[in-house]
Structures are given as structure tokens and as C-alpha cells.
Write the C-alpha cells for this entry.
Amino acid sequence: MELFDILPNSCHTIPVIQAVFFVITVRGVLVKTIGLVGGSSWVSSMDYYRLLNESIHRRLGGHNYARCVMYSFNFADIKKLNDARDWSTTLKLVTGVSRKLASAGAECIVLCANTMHVIAEDLSRAIKVPVIHIADATATAIAERGLKRVGLLGTKFTMEMDFFTRKLEARQIETIIPPEEDREFIHATIFDELGKGIIREATKRQYLDIIRGLTKQGVQGVILGCSEIPLLIEQRDCTIPLFDTVAIHVEEAVRFALKEGEQSGSH
């Protein structure tokens, strides 16, 4: 069986314009093409696309925006695999998509979801372009603030598995996660509300209560470790620093695209 035989026929090709990709420089900056693996969820994937373009435009001005290609999964396919913890099949799917993005001109891969990074290191070994790792970038941002103890909100996979927290541990950053009942609540609302674009004031109040509970445990900041949580919670809602992993991830991808220093990618 071919890898993409398990996907619908409509998903076999990426809807991008096939063109010759030229090396483009703007104001002496080499602009690279970013490959986005989206759809997990579509709501946060829109934010990735918007933030990438806004960031490139802020830096280069004029009519300059991001050079990128995107593949968007049907989230039902990914969620089914996540629920089964079938990471090997997820890896196969994402590897195939990433190779197609690279063949379409992508010079790095950005996985537009925190949970998807459970397979990021294996993906980086399977493809020929760098994977910009969301947890590496977040750990750097926290270290730059001098914080040593942070809370982590996200899916149960992100909070309970070590693919994210070990990146923090490597920077001597301690991670505190909410108690089990709160983890269940966060996980459920990510999939049943935020991932569908549903924003409820009652849900926001509960998230803020959870953050206050983490603050009582001595955390110096909180990681919004799911790409949908920033749709609900903003820095103005809290007195301690919040780390929006989507915004941090995007800025790291932009630095790579514009060759601004060393990228924190896996490859």
C-alpha cells in the first residue's frame, strides 16, 4: 500500500501553484519559503498564516509578505490517530506531506500544532529540510526572560507526555501542570470548543482559575501550549507572563526565513 492510499483522492496532491522557485532577496535579505502543516486545527492554522505574513511585512515593509506553502489536514483524520495514540501512522502521513511541501519549494517545515510535535524529532530525521520545533523556540523565549518555573496548558498529550517538557528541562526550566481534573477540562474544551472556533466566557473564567492555581504553586509564567488557547486567553488577562507558543513559533520561522541568526530547528 502506498502511503497516500489511506487518504481520500482529493488529498493526494497539494493545491499549490506549480512554479519555478527563484532565490528572492529583499533589501539584501535571503527570503526562504516556509512549509506549513496545518489543519490541526484549521482555526489556529489561520493564525499561523496571518502572523507569518504580518511579521514578514513588519520587517520588510512595502508589499512584502511571507513565501509559504501549506497543506491542511482534515482534523478528523488526525484526531482519530491522536485518540488512538497511533503516532507511527501520524508520522507517516506528516512525512509524506512534508516531502510534498519540500518538493513545492519549502525550505523548512512548521507543524501548526503543539501536539503534532510528538513526532517532530522523528520527522526531522525522515526529511531533508529543517523542522522548526515549537518547544525549542518556547524554551528559548522563557530562558531569555530568566524564568525557571512555568506552568503548561495544552492537550493531555502535551501536558502529560515529555516531548515538550524535556525541551524545557534541557534549559533547566521546571514545568508544572494542572491537576488531573483541570487537565481533563482543558483537553475537552480544546477539542469541543476552541478547535471549532467556539469561545465561551465561562470557559475563559475556568482557564483563568486554573492559571491562578498554578500561580499559587509558584510558577513565574504560563505556557499556552496549544495553538487554540491564545484565542481564549491573552496577556492582558493575567498578571504573570504568558507564552503564546503560536506567536513564538511563528517568529522563529520568520527568523529562519530571513536568516536572522540561528534557527532552533531539528535536523
Notes: The longest strand covers residues 34-38. Residues 42-60 form the longest helix (19 residues). Residues 1-24, 261-265 have pLDDT under 50 and may be disordered. The chain has ten helices and eleven strands.
